[in-house]
Protein: UTP--glucose-1-phosphate uridylyltransferase
Amino acid sequence: MTIHSVVIQKLLTTNAHIGRQVTTHHFKQFTYGFRNRQSIIDSDKTLICLRNALNFLSCLSRDPSSSFLFINTNPLFQPIIDEMTSRVTSLSPERASSLWKMRGFLTNSCSPKKFRSRHKKLVFAPTKMPDCVVIFDTERKSSVFLEAERLGIPIVALVDSGIPWEYYKKVTYPIPANDSVQFVYLICNMITKCLMLEKKKDGAKGTGKKATIKDQVESTSESKGSASDEVLVVPYDNLAPMSCADIADSKQLLDKLVVVKYNGALGKNMGFNGPKSLIEVKNGSTPLDLIVNQIQSLNSKYGCNIPLLLMNPKNTHKDIVKALEKYSTLDVDIHPFEQGERTQHESFVSEGGEDKWQSSKHGTHFLSLMNSGTLDVLLAQGKEYALVVNPDNVAGVVDPKILNHLAQNSIEYCSEVTPTTSTGLINFMASSLQGIFKLEDFTSDHSEKSVKGFKFIDTRSLWLNLKAIKRLVVTSALNLDNLSTLKLFENSIGISIPQSRFLPLNSTSDLFLLQSDLYSFTEGMFVRNDARVSPSDPSIALGPEFEKISDFKRRFETIPSIVKLDSLEVNGDVWFGADIVLKGKVVIDASPGLTLRIPDGVVLEDEEINDPTDI
Structure:
């Protein structure tokens, strides 16, 4: 019998696998099924989450100044926890159990600590802010969750199948299990052994303060010197293609991939009441259709299983779940996750108002999802890589060629970048030469005015090694919304993709480009028209009359041909007929009060039109 089998058998004897009759949606990832109308918790996943939680506690305990706060109000557990805390240095659990009931046990820590009465002395708060809060019975600890989250204190907690989402999302290291007395005894015993083992290691290496995980990460990044401010950019054409001859190897590699997409971007600025993922961009297909079709095509071709994780804020979750119904017959494993209200607010409210969405925040939401226990489940399933798709990029591709390059070169962090419209730089990258560039050469703002002075646009599509994420996620130093984060990874690069692989959808001008004859799509991927000679796409600027999708559709009978177009600027009350061809630089500016109708079949080349006589 293997060690794993012995440990699983030990877990089963504690009844940790027996859940409740009702299982919340977000907890189903930890369940095995139902028996006698009770959910059965997967012991393998419990063991994985338990191991990760213990590893986190062990890492924290390496700092001699660290402290833990154990929270419990179940009298059955109290003798067990008393025994544990008597053997390790921690705050008194008896004190903590009384403090949390009074509320403000953490946030009021700056207030007077003691109050004297005639008969007894009350303590209102810990004298030192804990580095971690461990909760044993989560059912009655709502204030603890709220205050620990407010102060940014990580939470390790036992969670059962009935825990509400608003509390579950606040747990940094959930341990899915039935909180039986036997299991609490087991976990307390393991915590005690882990912490005492770290103390023995500390004693063997001599006295002196140890560096925290964050300090170790920062010192590692500093030791790399000036190279940490540089990025190796590899042209996409330099990547070796996957071998089509060995389907088994390709399947094995693709089985290690998971795709993550955030659906918090709203189409309000285009008059669309819903997420951008549901806007029709080409032949009735939406961005969500495209990514699902890509994965379906790869699953069918290689016989692999690439799961798709959808992170949805509360205001878009129902629409996304309803849209997923049409994929029920497809061979795609789709998991929608509803994000909390706080996450939702931060994702689309900015200085520009609610209609301006900050797409760079999807890296933060990815880490939030990984911290909720999903990372441990993915690693248990053999997943090693994650593609975090920029929600604004309609042309984001699940590319086996990039995945193969990451695996062959042990790359932990890869950001897809694209050259700006600088002709010299485009020609340089087209020459199949790779180069090293400064971080100051990159920008995430792809607007025409903002890219001046920069060499690359960071598309915000990330390829990440999940094992590296696991190594770094325990520290607050990790921030995937900043390209400078790559210096925390052992091996990181940027891959220069063609501009046709970065097609953001932020306005009807972008929609015009996508619906034109410049692009078609097959198997969920946009393909550029070979007749286009220029390496860059034409510049499209439609006036406020075209701002809403409904107005955009009414003003175009068909989208004009723009294969040979350099730029198009339209202002005023302009209406387009069918089968129009645009070439060179075209400016159409209707005077106030004048309606311009562009007739069917007309060809406009390098023209400026202000009234009907100019056509």
